[in-house]
Amino acid sequence: MAKKEKKAKKEKTSSGSKKGKKFLFILVCIVGTIFLKMSFVLLFFGMLPAMAAYIFDRDKYKYIFCTVAAMNLSGLFPFLFKMVMQGGGFEVGRAVLSDPLTWLVIYSAAAIGWILIWTSPIVAAAALGGIYKGRVMRLEGMQKKLEEEWGEEVRGA
């Protein structure tokens, strides 16, 4: 009975936090469109890959989201900076938003974030494999020295 109560309580808090996140997202969008105008449009559509990563990342700490968002923002930032420094008006926004190079750079940076996520385990496994192979070779060398000094009975089973 206690497990059912805990589960029901957990479902209530998770649904409440989801509603709060949706409300906060909508509020940020409204405030962003009022104050940032065209820059917010670039920010919103430019960060779509990061938003998708947030939705699909089921990890508690959201490592995939953090990686993709960081790379995505690094590709977005130069164009966002350009728009803000030039006033963020409609003409500047139209020029930046209609340039295909803008979108190529932004989405390519996000793709690099996904590539990092997919290749990092492979690189880490290769590095650790090399480290462990070196340890095994060192221990085998030490074992050989012991065998030469003490005889084969130190080898064990």
- What's the order of the H and E elements? HHHHHH
- The first-to-last residue Cα distance is 53 Å
Low-confidence stretches: none
Question: How would you describe the shape?
Answer: elongated
Oligomer: single chain
Mean pLDDT across every amino acid position? 88
Rg of Cα set: 27 Å
Number of strands: 0
Strand-residue proportion: under 5%
Strand count, sense and closure of the main sheet? none
Give the fraction of residues assigned to helices: over 70%
How is this structure best summarized?
The protein has helices at 2-36, 38-46, 48-56, 63-85, 90-97, 100-150. With 157 residues, the chain is mainly α.
Which helices and strands appear, and what pairs or packs with what?
Blueprint: H1 2-36, H2 38-46, H3 48-56, H4 63-85, H5 90-97, H6 100-150
Helix pairs in contact: 1-2, 2-4, 3-4, 4-6
Features:
elongated, 86% helix, single chain, mainly alpha, 157 residues, 6 helices
Q: What can you see in these coordinates?
A:
This protein is mainly alpha-helical. It has one domain (16-155). It has helices at 2-36, 38-46, 48-56, 63-85, 90-97, 100-150. It contains 6 helices and no strands.
